[in-house]
């Protein structure tokens, strides 16, 4: 696969283009655990942060945790400034964003109050012609609606142009296919840690093969 073979480009953010330092992630889960009166192990923190089991809400329920209570606590403990300072851009992501031509969008589960500061800190705003942060009203990946909103903003679509969506999770692949796009799965953690192999139209460990 070459990105140049596509007319437009859609990307996920966390785990795909950027990642947060582990110390930040561990600290957030320590504080969330204090709010909920329980402790999250390192494995549990990684599973939820990266969505390793697919649906985070189903995982929370299987651990006896109410998802609404968890997300309320989680968002209350995420500090936009500290999150931005603790987030780094993968070098291969920087290369692909500099190289792609044509309409380019970002579709992320990362909430707007966090996404903006991260893009500011990493000087990424100019790389995207549209940014869609998923909400209850847009739906959550693998629902295609967030991707369709981005395509509407870009005035593109699978019926008019060839595009792909690149992400690190199963939901990203599902959203791409449900929206009629090619799916690029970026496996940054390795199959062993994920515990499964995620299929996609293209499977890469970095964006360099797209160049």
Description:
- Helix 1 crosses helix 4.
- The protein has helices spanning 22-36, 42-50, 56-62, 67-77, 80-85, 91-99, 112-121, 145-154, 170-178, 191-194; strands at residues 8-11, 18-20, 87-89, 104-108, 130-133, 163-167, 182-186, 202-204.
- By secondary structure, the protein is of the alpha/beta class.
- It has 2 domains: 3-19 and 87-210, HAD superfamily/HAD-like (Rossmann fold, 3-Layer(aba) Sandwich); 22-83.
- The strands form 2 sheets. A 6-stranded parallel sheet has the order 5-4-1-6-7-8, with helices on one face.
- 36% of the residues are buried.
- The mean pLDDT is 93.
- The longest helix has 15 residues, at 22-36.
- Strand 4, helix 7 (112-121) and strand 5 (130-133) form a beta-alpha-beta unit.
- It contains 10 helices and 8 strands.
- InterPro entries: HAD-like_hydrolase_sf (IPR050155), HAD-like_sf (IPR036412), HAD_2 (IPR041492), HAD_sf (IPR023214), PGP-like_dom2 (IPR023198).
- It comes from Halopenitus malekzadehii.
- One of its GO terms (molecular function) is phosphoglycolate phosphatase activity.
- This is Phosphoglycolate phosphatase.
